[in-house]
Amino acid sequence: MAQRSLVRVGVTILAASLALSACGSRGGDTSAGSGSTAGGDSAAKVAKIGVIAPLSGDLSALGLGIRNAVDLAVKQANESGAIPGWTLQMDAKDDEAKPETGKNAATALAGDAEVVGVVGTLNSSVAQNVQPVLAGANIVQVSPANTGPSLTRGADFANAPKRTYANYFRTCTTDDVQGPFAAQYLIEQGIKKVATIHDKKTYGQGLVDAFTKEFKAKGGTITGSTTVNPEDANFQTAITAIRGGSPELVYYGGEYPQAGPLSQQMKSAGLNVPLMGGDGIYDQKFIDLAGATANGDLATSVGAPTDELAKGKEFLDAYQAAGFTDPASAYGAYAYDAANAIIEGLKVSLKDAADASSARQATIDAVGKVDFEGVTGKVAFDEYGDSKTRTLTAYKVEGLKWVAAKTGSVE
């Protein structure tokens, strides 16, 4: 893949982190009752946007930000009367970051005739179980966070891409862009010897595979590779396996509940090099878990820093004003854009619809054609359902805060 030039941002996301620390979820907004009636019309017909995300457990910091952002988008649409004659409601389901729980959540939403769209999931492994359920019910799904390429382009996405589910879209970019972006960033920083670890899950393994391919192509050396289990808490075996190769950095495919302790244990064991991961570790909780030695660790995440974009600032202000008590986190802005992509589709599909369920296929068709300026940039989808926007940012921990280092994209 050809590389676009990376533009140095040189600004921190500290301001956004401080602003978001006062934001978050309000109790009671997880039910289908979220959202106010459009124009005060009690006779308005109801259409629901579901959410499937981890609302409890280790990854709830990310899932709650997703839920809250959808809640905000739904409330704003109702307040503005975006779809005359209709009231939108949010129905949020907790998938606990577990594939089977996610499947059950999708089944529940699919069985509700008023559900016309779903925002989710966070995890690519959960999406694999959710996709066929929602596709079978003709319900549009827009993920703010799934980065596994196979979800849109099939198992042989690199050689023979094929659309998997016509109802599935995503507002974030994919691992086969994010991995190479990280590899190119490290090569530019003069880091050419890297060990890799992943958690065996769809996201972690895919990210490491994409990173490794590009890193080698750019002249880097993988000094060692190993895996851990998603439930592991002690990483000494993995650390021992890669330490002998004297890597300059460890690239981890997985999420912050394991990445934070891994970073701390690496350094305690004498492997005093940075840990780098993808968007799955880009959260303050990674730093909290990694502790004082987190400074110097790295992550990539989708998009430009939200507080650096005009619409991003508007979103953060509205999120804070809504009174949420949990941060929007890495995917709040993308969830907000995902919800608004569905809402834009509903403006077309519900216009002459007798009820919500009869508008499901028309909603899929309409969402595939949306094109608007969102919080994260232009929101539009290619022939596979992938976002046309491929911007990423590399972040570094400085002073125990994530600081934006470079923003750019890979073609």
UniProtKB/TrEMBL annotation:
Alphabetical keyword list: Signal
InterPro entries associated with the record: Leu-bd, Peripla_BP_I
Protein name, entry field: Branched-chain amino acid ABC transporter substrate-binding protein
Leader peptide range in chain numbering: 1-21
Recorded family membership: Belongs to the leucine-binding protein family.
Domain Leucine-binding protein: 48-398
Organism: Kineosphaera limosa NBRC 100340
